[in-house]
Amino acid sequence: MNIANFLHRSARVFGDRPALAVGTKVVKSYEALSIRAASLSSGLQRKFGLKAGDRVAFAMKNCPEYWELMFACWHGGFAAVPMNAKLHAKEFDYIVANSGAKACFFDAKDFEGINAQPRQPFESRPDDLAWLFYTSGTTGVPKGAMLTHRNLLFASQAYFADIDKLGPGDAILHAAPLSHGSGLYGVPHFAAGAANVIPESGGFDAEELFDLLDAWPGSSFFAAPTMIVRLLASPAARRPTHLKTISYGGAPMYVADSLRAIDLFGGEHLYQLFGQGESPMTIAGLPQEFHVRRESLETCGFARTGVEVRVLDSGEIVTRSDCVMAGYWDNPEASAKALAGGWLHTGDLGRMDARGFLTILDRSKDMIISGGSNIYPREIEEVLLRHPSVAECSVVGRPHAEWGEEVVAFVVRKNPVEPSELDDLCLSNIARFKRPREYRFVESLPKNNYGKVLKTALRAVLSAELRKRL
């Protein structure tokens, strides 16, 4: 079982059909992409001495070559380690070192001339590592979720079973990062012979995306809720000509925003998903029919096909299926904790009604989700505490109409310090999107009898301020 065979099968059946496009221009047919991936795979083996099981890291913005490299990795039996292109250099350094990557690419030009005689795909086993998906941990140290060929096959089959039937006349628009959800949903589209379209901007631009939805028949795309909010607010907003499905998730979606999205796009075109890197995109889902009837919009739906979901007495959501990761890379302690009892412990708190519909109530461990990206407060706190003038600090999320949440840092100072100094410190150590949007200086932090900072009290202060403004 090798995910690379998705591409090579489509090349045999749909050889001259569009596989990759930039904007409205086709740049690779399935036959051409299949040949390129196979020859690049052989070239990587020859140049870097790679063998099956070795890791290849890359941190590129969305581009057609991204998929060349991804399938080249799978073709050779290597594990792909896609990294968010927005990360800080120090974060790249950590992931590359932790994964033990034998090669790392930051630009398509780094491998454009690498070729060799194509070989047959490596005969990977179902439980061989295919994708090392790095997701930040509560300690601020990223953990690599080990996704196997079995996991990616299951996730793709669940897409076909629950979200859409696909064919060579369809397309997926990659406006979200390929290192995460959009890339994961590209896999079933390759399996079906659909076109994978990269916007000319290389990312998300509302006007451009509306234009592409009018240009490509059978168009689908994955979006974080913040992207949908920006689409709704765009001057270019209109009912697209060729929209098939918007799969959205990665953060909670407010019911008011869901209703606005239904009015613009039509409920028959919306699918809400609940998943995480440890069970990629595949835990629960709210199908299109429930958007059409506008039922249960406050929930994230019910268990996906072949997936079990439970809510423990503690309120934590757990799941098990063939989509659940094999564990965390080189971290047996974290793996044992996350997979205790044979279930993936999501760290999310929720409730389930008698019909099996799941509602997420809160996120444990104080995680912040901004623009669909997970942000862990402790990671930021540890950076701020490096400043000699910072005595204590606590980072929490504040509700934000567009991004879902924004980061606010409460800081107790030893000596005078300006917000700009703290901002510079953060920008030197973590990704820009993680830095606090406000530094609030306080005399002390609220704590319980055990000395633990009460983040709930801090969030309550921010929420009260927002209510006064409304």
Identify the notable features of this structure and list them briefly.
single chain, about 475 residues, alpha/beta, Rossmann fold, GMP Synthetase, Chain A, domain 3, 2 domains, nine-stranded mixed beta sheet, four-stranded antiparallel beta sheet, about 30% helix
Rg over alpha carbons: 22 Å
Return the domain count: 2
General form: globular
CATH homologous superfamily label of the largest domain: ANL, N-terminal domain
CATH-defined topology of the largest domain: Rossmann fold
What's the quaternary structure here?
Answer: single chain
Number of strands: 23
The largest sheet has its strands arranged as 2-1-9-8-10-11-12-13-14
**Largest sheet features:** 9 strands, mixed
Can you identify the CATH class of the largest domain? Alpha Beta
Instruction: Report helical residue fraction.
Output: 25-40%
CATH architecture annotation name of the largest domain: 3-Layer(aba) Sandwich
Q: For the record, give the distance between the C-alpha atoms at the N and C termini, rounded to a whole number.
A: 55 Å
Unreliable stretches covering 5 or more consecutive residues: none
The amount of beta strand, in percent, is 25-35%
Main structural class: alpha/beta
Structure in words:
The mean pLDDT is 93. This protein has 14 helices and 23 strands. It has 2 domains: 4-362, Rossmann fold, CATH 3.40.50.12780; 367-469, ANL, C-terminal domain (GMP Synthetase, Chain A, domain 3, 2-Layer Sandwich). Helix 1 runs antiparallel to helix 2 (30-48), helix 2 crosses helix 3 and helix 8 (225-233) crosses helix 9. It has 470 residues and is of the alpha/beta class.
